[in-house]
Amino acid sequence: MLAILRFLVGCAHHTVSHLPFLIVVEYCGVASRTVPLMMVMMSYTFASLTVPWVAMALPSWRILSVIASTLILPVIACWKIIPESPSWLLVKGRTDEAMAQLGVVARVNGNDFQDDDARKELLKEKEAESSATEKVNLLQMFKTPNLRVNAFLVNIICMMGFMCYYGHVQNTSNLGEGNVYKSYFLGALVEIPCWSIPIIIAKLGRRWPLLFLFATSGVAGVVYGFIPVDYHLTSLSVGLIGRMTVNGAYFICLQYGSEIFPTVIRGQGIALCEIVGGIAIFLSPTVVYLAKVSPILPLLILGFCSLIGALATFFLPETAGRALPQTLKDGEGFGLDQSKWDFACIKKNRYHIPEDKMSEDIPEDV
pTM for the complete prediction? Predict the structure, then answer.
C-alpha cells in the first residue's frame, strides 16, 4: 500500500509544483518572467531548511508524512481562483475568457485595461495565424527541424538537471561525517545564494549562466572523486558546491523549457520535459545507491551528467529579452538569427524570423 501511495505522490508532484509556475509565467511580461522563478526557489529552500529540524523533533517519519500531506490540502479549496493560461485560451478561441482574465490582472495591478483595443490587436494576430491552429499537437513539432532540435536539447538539459539536482539532494546524507540532519540542512543552506539566479539570468541571459553552472557542478563532481576519504570537510565543501551550482542549473532548466516551446504546444512540451525529468528522478536513487560500492561514484556520475547538460546548453538559443513564440512557425524560426557565441548582455537581437531561414518543410496546416 505504501508503494502505491508513494507512486501516486510521485505522479502528482511535478504537476502540482511546476504547473502553477508555468501559468504565472504566461501572465508575465518579458522583463518580469524571472520573478516567478525566484518565488519557486525561495519557497523550496525555506521548506528544505525547515524539514530537518521538524524531522528531528518528531518521533516517527509517519507523522512527518502526515504533516507534509496535510499542508497541501487547503490548495484544493482554491481551485476556482486559479486562473487559466491566457495564451492557451486565445489559442483555443476562448477570447472572452482570456479578456476577462487579463482584465482582472490589470485591475489588480492598478492599470486601465482597454478591452476593445486588445480585441482589435488579437483579431489582427488571429488573421495572420493559421486557421488550423487548434489542431496543432506535439507530434507536428517533429516536422520542424529547428524546433525539433531545440526541443531535444531542452529535454536533455531537463533530464540532466533533474537527475543531478535530485541526485545531489539524496546524496547529501553521504557527505561529511554522515549526520543526515546536519548535511541536509547545510545542503539547503547553500541554495540561498542561488536566489540571485533570476536576477543573473535577467541580466546575462539563460544560456551562458546555465552552461557555467552545469560545468561547475560537473567539475566539482569529478574533483570529488580525487579527494581522500578521510578529508571530511573538504569532501563536504566540494559536494555542497556541486549541489549549489546544480540547484541553480535545475531552476534555469524550468525557465528554459517554458520559453523554448511555442504557446500552441507549450503545455505538451513542458509535460514531455516533466516525463523525461521524472525518468531521471526515478534513476537518481540508483546512482546514489552506488555509494555502497564506492563513496565517490555518485558524485562522479552526476558530475559527468552535468557536463553533458553543459554541452547541450551550448547549442540552445538564448531566450532572454525575446517574445515567447506563439505558433510552430514562430518556434521554428526562434534562434535562427543568433550565433553560438552571442551574449545576451552584449548583443540584444530583436525577436524575428529570418525569411531566408524559414523552414519550407512546415506543412501549411501548422
Answer: 0.72
User: Exposed, middle or buried, 164 (CB in 10 Å: 0-12/13-18/19+)?
Assistant: buried
Contact 338, 344 (CB under 8 A): no
Quick one: DSSP state of residue 85?
Answer: P
Distance of alpha carbon 86 from alpha carbon 29, whole angstroms: 13
Contact yes or no for 211/313 (Cβ under 8 A): yes
Going by the DSSP 8-state scheme, the letter that residue 321 receives in this structure is T
182 falls in which pLDDT band (50, 70, 90)? confident
Return the DSSP state at 80.
Answer: G
CA-CA distance, 204 to 19, in Å (whole number)?
A: 26
**How many whole angstroms separate alpha carbon 168 and alpha carbon 239?**
8
Amino acid letter for position 139: L
Tally of CA atoms within 13 A in the half-sphere of 135 that contains its CB: 7
pLDDT of 91 over the 60 cut: yes
Greatest mean pLDDT among 4-13, 129-138, 211-220, 270-279 lies in: 211-220
Cell 504565472: give the residue: 24
Measure Cα distances from 35 to 11, 19, 236 in Å.
27, 15, 31
Q: Where are the alpha helices (DSSP H) in 172-262?
A: 180-189, 197-204, 207-224, 232-260
Whole-angstrom Cα distance, residue 334 to residue 249?
22
Task: Evaluate whether 243 touches 172 at the Cβ level (below 8 Å).
Answer: yes
